[in-house]
């Protein structure tokens, strides 16, 4: 069954090919996909016992707007018509505000690869939202991560093969790779 609307979320720091796999699988299950960007600004960043690194400044180098543009361009690059997706802030760290940004009658898609994924699942189901787990994997089966991409950028190693072409172009054109290096040097 294809849902009318689906919601998916992530930090997308930076958008990589595994994110695209996740986004496209969710899109295949609904007519319109609402893509939520978590930690849309620094006021929403909160440490979690299940993932302490996600709140560090160097792990959040891109603004909401930069991530918005990367996601929009990558979805278009992959052939998803613009009228079939929306991009919104998604305050997973302040779940009482989720209904201000995303429809509560949609199907919420997610993956669980660690304790943080389980915490998010518990949060969403605790709000009474319908949730479909696209896949449940062990952390070592997760695949490419934003941490891995940022590390390669910091080390001056090739990373273009891990991200959509539009994302690579966006980051390098706007010199955001230099920001990642600057943030990593403290």
UniProtKB/TrEMBL annotation:
Signal peptide: none annotated. InterPro entries: Cyt_trans-like, Rossmann-like_a/b/a_fold. GO terms for molecular function: nucleotidyltransferase activity. Transmembrane segments: none annotated. It comes from Sellimonas caecigallum. The keyword Cell membrane does not apply. This is Nicotinate-nucleotide adenylyltransferase. Residues 8-151 form the Cytidyltransferase-like domain. It comes from the Bacteria. Keywords: Nucleotidyltransferase, Transferase.
């Amino acid at each position: 069954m294809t849902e009318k609307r689906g919601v998916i979320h992530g930090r997308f720091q930076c958008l990589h090919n595994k994110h695209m796999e996740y986004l496209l699988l969710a899109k295949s299950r609904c007519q319109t996909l609402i893509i939520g960007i978590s930690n849309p600004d620094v006021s929403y960043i909160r440490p979690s016992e299940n993932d302490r690194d996600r709140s560090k400044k160097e792990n959040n180098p891109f603004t909401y707007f930069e991530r918005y543009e990367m996601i929009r361009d990558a979805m278009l690059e992959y052939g998803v018509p613009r009228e079939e997706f929306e991009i919104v802030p998604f305050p997973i760290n302040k779940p009482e505000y989720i209904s201000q940004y995303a429809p509560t009658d949609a199907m919420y898609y997610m993956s669980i690869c660690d304790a943080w994924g389980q915490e998010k699942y518990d949060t969403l189901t605790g709000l009474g939202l319908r949730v479909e787990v696209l896949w449940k994997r062990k952390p070592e089966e997760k695949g490419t991560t934003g941490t891995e991409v940022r590390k390669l950028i910091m080390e001056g190693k090739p990373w273009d093969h891990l991200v959509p072409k539009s994302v690579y172009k966006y980051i390098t054109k706007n010199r955001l790779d230099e920001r990642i290096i600057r943030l990593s040097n403290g």
